[in-house]
Amino acid sequence: MSASTKTIKPKNKGTKVLFDNPILERLSRTNTAIPVSIFLSFSAFLMIWGFIHSQYSAINQIAYFFTGLLLFSLIEYLVHRYVFHMITNTRFRERMQYAFHGVHHEFPKDTSRLAMPPILSVVIVTLLYFLFKLIMGDHTFGFLPGFITGYSLYLIVHYVVHAYQPPKNFLKALWINHGIHHYKDHERAFGVSSPLWDYIFRTTPRKSKSH
After folding, report:
1. Does residue 56 sit in helix, strand or coil?
2. In b/e form, how buried is each residue of 170-187, taking b as 16+ CB within 10 angstroms?
3. pTM of the model
4. Burial class (CB in 10 A: 0-12, 13-18, 19+), 134
5. 8-state DSSP, 61
6. Residue 161 and residue 140: Cα distance in Å, rounded?
7. Cα separation of 22 and 6, whole Å?
8. 60, 137 contact by CB (below 8 A)
9. Over the Cα atoms of the chain, what is R_g?
């Protein structure tokens, strides 16, 4: 657990200037809808292309889609737990952790820093395509859309739990878990889009002791 994140007190108003350079500062912010649109459009294109041109059946591609979706949920959990909440035993790691995630814990209502900038999103999804194509061949047309759809769902859920009040249905648990992570226990509830891996790795929020 990062010592810097432990000591951060959330502020429900305001923002933080991370870069003196105004261009870099502007690039560090984005409307979540922009990368979500990029990822979902690319996902749809790859799926359609795969259905038309791939040597594999549609059922095969759909199975790989859900495999990619599941794998992303695991990556989401692991990155949040071990990268965003890394141990900050050096000044460099402390600064890096703060830029990656600590600033979000300090200003959780700043919705302009809930997603990667569009330029970085395009670069990453392009690199992922060539990487998975090299490893998986035509299975990429099912797997990668599932993986980046998983990321899109994460972005959507993360945005709405910070921007809106919780609904009066089963989805309320997502708001509760993420609120606990931000305001009560930074060592619990690392899953944002799903509590699945918190259950598996036993990092669900601790139950309050009854008196």
Report:
1. coil
2. eeeebbebbbbbbeeebe
3. 0.90
4. exposed
5. H
6. 31
7. 29
8. no
9. 18
Which pLDDT belongs to residue 76?
97
Res. 2 pLDDT band, cuts 50 70 90: very low
Task: Report the C-alpha gap between 107 and 8 in whole angstroms.
Answer: 10
Distance CA 100, CA 189 (A): 18
Q: DSSP of 66-120, one letter per residue?
A: HHHHHHHHHHHHHIIIIITT----SHHHHHHHIIIIIHHHHSTT-GGGSS--HHH
Place of tokens 């959780």: 108
Determine the Cα–Cα distance for residues 7 and 5; give it in Å rounded to an integer: 5
Query: Phi/psi of residue 85, each to 5°?
Result: -115, 45
Task: Show the tokens assigned to 21.
Answer: 């350079």
Q: How far is the CA of 111 from the CAs of 16, 26, 91, in angstroms?
A: 12, 14, 27
Q: Find out whether 157 and 192 touch, Cβ atoms under 8 Å.
A: yes
What are all long-range contacts of 89-94, with beta carbons under 8 Å and residues at least 24 apart? 94/2, 94/3, 94/4
